[in-house]
Amino acid sequence: MCSYFDDLGIRDCYASALNTGRITADEFKAINEFHNALLRYNPPGGDDWDNAKILADPAWHLVVAEAKRARKRLVDLTSDPDERLILLREACGEE
Fold first, then answer.
1. Structural domain that includes position 13
2. Is residue 94 a part of any domain in this protein?
3. Interval 84-94: pLDDT, tens
4. Cβ atoms 70, 28 nearer than 8 A
5. pLDDT tens per residue, range 13-56
């Protein structure tokens, strides 16, 4: 979570990236629901370190589903072969 929000500097939901032209309005729309789902997520018992409980949490499964939808939307937006390769590569054993 902190790698996504803090290391990427996107706590503002990509508003600065959109305003500076680093992402397009369509890219913003593609990622926005995932970003908000992740922002709203609270791990069971508030324990960010209990991986087993998080991975079993139905609320986490909804975040993962939204991430997959966002990834598909981003793939559909780009024709750049390198970007497509990055977006389509296998992540954590899933295609």
1. 2-88
2. no
3. 999 888 655 55
4. no
5. 778 888 888 889 999 999 889 989 998 999 999 999 999 999 99
75 half-sphere exposure, CB direction, 13 A CA radius? 13
Quick one: tokens of 42?
Answer: 């609270």
Q: What is the pTM of this model?
A: 0.80
Given a contact cutoff of 8 angstroms between Cβ atoms, the answer to whether 39 and 14 are in contact is no
Q: Is residue 21 a contact partner of residue 50, using CB atoms and an 8 Å limit?
A: no
Q: Where are the alpha helices (DSSP H) in 1-95?
A: 2, 15-19, 25-40, 51-56, 58-77, 81-88
Query: What are the residues whose beta carbons fall under 8 Å from the beta carbon of 62, sequence distance 6 or more?
Result: 37
Q: How many domains does the chain have?
A: 1
Tokens linked to 93? 């054993």
Residue 95 lies in a domain: no
Q: How far apart are CA 70 and CA 35, in angstroms?
A: 9
